[in-house]
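Hi there,

I know you've been waiting on this one. I reran it after we fixed the sequence typo, so this is the corrected version. Both the input and the resulting structure follow.
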Amino acid sequence: MQLPTPARALGVDHAADWEGSGLAALTGPADGEPITIDNPVVASVAALADGVSTAATRLGGAAPKLDAASSLTERARLDGLTRRGVVSCGGGCAMYEAVDGWLALSLARGSDRELLPAWLGASTAVVDDDGELRHELRRHRVGDLVGLAAELGIPVASVGEEPGVAPARRALTGSDRAVRPVSDIRVVDLSAMWAGPLVGRLLAAAGAAVTKVESPHRPDALANGSPELFRRLNGAKRRVSIDLRSPRAVVDLRTELLEADLVIDSSRPRAMAQLGIDVVGIVASGTTWLSITGHGRASNRVAFGDDAAVAGGAWVVPTGARTPVFVGDALADPVAGWVGAWAAFEALEESRSTLIDVSMSASVWHVLGRRRARQ
C-alpha cells in the first residue's frame, strides 16, 4: 500500500511542529532540557489524517475531527506524563545496556517479569532487583537477547535496528465485496490498548457502526491504566463482552466477523488460530481484516508502543550523553493508529476484501522519513 510520502516540503518548520505538538516536552533526560527533533513526523501524520478525512467524505461520511498533532501526545496530556529519559513516559519501558549495544525492554506485565530468569539464564533476583537485571543484561549480546525474547514473548527492541517490512501492506486479497457508504459499514474491533482502538475511533467518528469486543477474562488494560483515553477511544462504540473460553461464544463471534465489513485486530496470528478463527477464510468470504502488530504478522515478536517506537528509530542520544532516551510517549501507538486508519479507509473504498498487515515499528520508521530521530 502506497502511504503518503513523509513530508519534507520546503517552508515546513518541522522543529516548530514538534514543539507545538507537545512532543518536545516528552523527549529528553528527566533532569535536563526538552529535546526538539527536526523531523517530519508531525507533518507526515497530518498527511495521513488528511487522507483519512478525504476518504471518509468520499464514502459519504464525516471527516473525523481529531487533530493529528495533538493525538500524538494525547495520553501524556490526559495522564499528566512527562519525559523521564531512560524510562518511558508511562514507566513501563526502560533502556538497558548489553555487551554490544542498548535495548528497550517493556516490563508493564507481571508475566514478562516472571520470564526474566529464563530469558537471561539468571537467578530470580532479576525479577524485582533492577540493579541485578542491569548487571545480567550487560553479560549478553543484543542479537541473542532479542532472538530469545521473541521466542518467550517478551517485548524487547534493540536501539539501532531498522524494520524490515512495509508499514502497511496487503497480505492477501479475498473476494468481491460491496462498497458501502460509511453509514452502512459494520466494524468489529477486537483490538486493545491504543493503536487499534484509534482506528475504530476514527471510523466511528466518520459514521461507521463500530462494535468493540472484549473478553471478561482479558479486558482492555487501558481502561484501568488510562481511563480517560480509553473513554475517548471507545466511547462512541457499541461494547460487547464475549467469553472466548466458551465454544458457543466463539461460534457467535465468528458469525459476527463474517458479517462485518472490517475487523480490527491487534493480536499475533496464533491468537486467532488458537480460538479456531480462520482469518484467511474470513477474508476470503468478503470481510477486510486489519491486523496491527508490533513488527508485522510474519514476526513472532511481542511489542508495546514504546519498544516498537525504538525499533522504528524513535530514540535519541542527548548531546554530551551516551545513553539513548525515549522520544515521545509510546509513539508507535498513535502513529500506527493513523497508518491503520488510512489503510482501512483505502481498503473500504475497494471492491475486494483484503488482509492488511500493519507494523507498528515500520509505521514509525515511515513517518520519520526512514531514518532515526535526530536533534
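Quick highlight: DSSP finds 18 helices and twelve strands in the chain.

Best,
R. S.
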